[in-house]
Amino acid sequence: MLLSALKRFLIGQPLKSAELGEQKLNKTKALAILSSDALSSVAYGPEQILIVLVTISTVALWYSIPIGVGVLVLLLALILSYRQIIFAYPHGGGAYVVSKENLGVNAGLLAGGSLLVDYILTVAVSISAGTDAITSAFPQLHPYNVDIATLLVVAITILNLRGITESASILAYPVYLFILALFILIGAGLYKGMTGAVSPDMHPSLGTPVAGITLFLLLKAFASGSSALTGVEAISNAIPNFKDPGPNNASKTLAAMGLLLAILFSGIVYLAYAYGIAPKAQETVVSQIASQTFGRNYMYYFIQGTTAMILVLAANTGYSAFPLLAVNLARDKYIARMFTIRGDRLGYSNGIIFLSIMSIILIIAFKGRTEHLIPLYAVGVFIPFTLAQTGMLVKWVREKPKGWLVKLTINLIGALISFTVMLIFFITKLGQVWPVFIFLPLIVYTFHRIKRHYEAVGEQLRITTCEPAVPIEGNVMIVPVAGITHVVENSLNYAKSLSPDQIIAVYVAFDRDTEKQFQEKWADWQPDVRLVTLHSHYRSIIQPLTKFIDTVEHKAKESNFRVTVVIPQFIPKKSWQHALHNQSSLLIRAFLLYRKDLIVTTVPYHLKK
Amino acid sequence: MLLSALKRFLIGQPLKSAELGEQKLNKTKALAILSSDALSSVAYGPEQILIVLVTISTVALWYSIPIGVGVLVLLLALILSYRQIIFAYPHGGGAYVVSKENLGVNAGLLAGGSLLVDYILTVAVSISAGTDAITSAFPQLHPYNVDIATLLVVAITILNLRGITESASILAYPVYLFILALFILIGAGLYKGMTGAVSPDMHPSLGTPVAGITLFLLLKAFASGSSALTGVEAISNAIPNFKDPGPNNASKTLAAMGLLLAILFSGIVYLAYAYGIAPKAQETVVSQIASQTFGRNYMYYFIQGTTAMILVLAANTGYSAFPLLAVNLARDKYIARMFTIRGDRLGYSNGIIFLSIMSIILIIAFKGRTEHLIPLYAVGVFIPFTLAQTGMLVKWVREKPKGWLVKLTINLIGALISFTVMLIFFITKLGQVWPVFIFLPLIVYTFHRIKRHYEAVGEQLRITTCEPAVPIEGNVMIVPVAGITHVVENSLNYAKSLSPDQIIAVYVAFDRDTEKQFQEKWADWQPDVRLVTLHSHYRSIIQPLTKFIDTVEHKAKESNFRVTVVIPQFIPKKSWQHALHNQSSLLIRAFLLYRKDLIVTTVPYHLKK
């Protein structure tokens, strides 16, 4: 009762299935909830480029401008091609569905598997990053990093269990505040530049020759910068969460997200270049830009605060996309069916809870230091990116719809760039990225195992298979008894009322005296019920009992009799009292049910005090 | 299978009940196993006295001699009076039984409760102390203190689960090595003193006047020194573990333990005085004595090593005494009956496991720093000491056996000193000792609650109560069905074979279409079985189902029909596959059994692949 009241308080009253429509998102809320991952990467994406370039010299930092342009091209290609995916697959599922339908099952499972893992990594990485931002501001909280991160995951989980519209309403403010904050920052920075407050001496001019620059290094910088594009695919997975017409609304939201991401990304890259900012271990690039633009005044703290918030909220994108992707995989029987069940508030609560548990495990296992999971996470995004674009390519070639050459070109460019980025990741960061070669095959293998199991079950249960049921010619009932009590009486009366062909009471004795005594008492009390006494040398009840039941069952099978074990169980009034009684009946029940082909009947006797 | 093989490997093959006699202890082993707690206190008891005295001045250290004599008197009184208890109560139970029989139930429960808690503290405190000794020798292990302590508890638990004779055989060596080590130390120290190698200038002469000494301080030093006597009562609890004749063997073992304890204690106290040793934070008194006697050679390390071992093994006394005390309390129905069950190797495994879990919890909760539990632990010993002696007093006055005046005098002295020590603890260390005022009443209250519950249950189950069983006039069977499958067919056939008065199949639908479809299919498939379809707005199966069952049950009760819920359950071949299926039948079963007065029958359908 207490637990259920607590659940109601945290999650809210259950919703009727018919209220599903009301739980759908309009574009403003969807943008907030589904793009927080992509937008938050602006806070670290540009920095990743600079970190690679600065290893040569600060002069090399001007390369961030052409590399930034490259990232924007990739962004454009991804947005356009995911727009095509949204219309082609209006029921969502994104990379998984696209790859499965066009490239075959294994490609689909590869895409689906990497995305599932990726959303878990999204949650763990972004919550850890957000926690770091918080504890950097309040260093006395630093020892509690893992606890704070775990609490944040729990809080986001509760919000998501309350339902997506409700969480969207709460989470939209910080996202839009972050966008506002960065717009102000970029606007103020550009204004400063135009009024001449930023001298050209602060940065190397574009095209300055740089000694020691290599293509490898530039590609590495480009790949690092592309990590700002993680999260772009989330909208295509989550179309079912949009208000009707889903695909239209989703594509408009995608366009808005692309535009915002492009503006914020180029703004930050440009300002970092203009101010000649080099990455520092103790201060983020965004923080440097903000303090150069405003000094450390309230605007600076506004920007830092909203950045910390968006990093935490990026996790929420995982919460929106993971359960829907899981539903798609579960409907195809590649993962457990429970992921298709809607919870009290119509969200797919099993997916939400699974995601939380996995990410909490990651946070605890890595003690909140999940930064070195980032390359793994980025490569896990570009695998499905590449597969999805290639899938679309194949689709256009196969179907050749009106204007297919344009569509083909878009997806071709997307596929080529995604593939290149993926390759660069594998080449330049193999040391951090190798685990995908182990866990992706493992995941795909598990998917197949699960599917095979579901299909075998379905086949065995289907009533059309011709194997006729074994007819039941009679019933034997075995009643294990522990004494001469009302509980036993109650069970015996029940067994008698069903008039089986035979009732056998079984008593397990630990020594000969008790055995004899019991037999005598029984003969007085229930002379018409056959009593079998068993002797236990090792003080175990289950062992002699199952041995006896085996014998009975063996005989019964010969004449098509069914064996039912009738277990007398008394049930105390209060639950703490259970601990005071041997749970032998529980053990017997579990043991018999799973190991043997027996019917187990529990006859409860409720105590009144 | 794997688990049970692991269990066999760790614990050994199960023993027959008839082999109980072979599991009993001879005196040598019993001394080792039951006196390790008392003997180990020699390693810290004398130090406790010096720590109090040195707060005045180093001159005051000579008072350790008269205080030591006082402790020896108390030891003598305790040994003599526990000897009397052993013969008066040859079945063991010690302070609990003595107090209960002579002073009333509550006194007994107070004694029993404090001893139970005390044995848990013994294990936690001595394992922590032993771990400290180990990690002092290997400082690089220091961060793993809690892990090492936990592992040690687990190791001792496994030894004890293997059976007491086996653990005694292994654990006897270190105990006797420790005794040997201290004998050599004391012998060498005395020899040095006699050969004049110890100058009288090293220590103040006895009787030197000391400024600022108070009675309060001396009493505090005495009480602290008395903590060396914890563990003296263990033998009286454990008489059933002795080879026949138990009481004789136990009393001889007790005498041997008393003698050893007296020699070791006085030796250490005297040498500490003779060398003029003051307690140091970084080095124990025994270590100081050893290094002054031998220098830091191999003998020094032999003494230090065996001391560390005996500290760990002191825990084992708790393992011998706790389960036997628990059996006594459980037989009287004050704690759960499970404590009376002998495990595979004839030890009371539930008591052993409970003790381990509780002490691991304490170790983890206090992060291995359990020193400040020592006063609590000491006071928890002197409460039952006092009660037991007072109980014996009352017994002698009441029964007046031959020579009762001598016996009375012994117990009177014991009771008075124990009571005084207890009072001193309360007065001088109230800040550390106050929790007993909360948890002891709580424990006694719980004991009574449990007893009342067992008595109520017994009364309700006893067949002699005149309430006649309600006759069963007929049976209704409800079969929840989830589809048209072999599993359902199997259950329906079973229900039919018992020919109840009515069979009702119940189907819970989430929307109207499925509901209608199912009704049609059912009418084709099982036209003779009545189908009831229920509609669930909130996607819950249990809620509408229980509501329906309630209605049926209500009607059935009017005409004395019994309601059986027949649950079809298919059982996958491998256990990992369970996770892939909704565990609704499990939930339904648990829910129905505990909340309602229904009979629950599970009909398994075992999948073949």
From TrEMBL, chains A, B:
Looking up Pfam families in the UniProt record yields: AA_permease_2
Sorted alphabetically, the keyword list is: Membrane, Transmembrane, Transmembrane helix
- Locations listed in the record: Membrane
Membrane-crossing ranges are 49-82, 103-129, 141-159, 171-191, 211-232, 253-278, 298-325, 346-366, 372-393, 405-427, 433-450
**According to its record, how does it sit in the membrane?**
Multi-pass membrane protein
Name of the protein in its database record? Amino acid permease
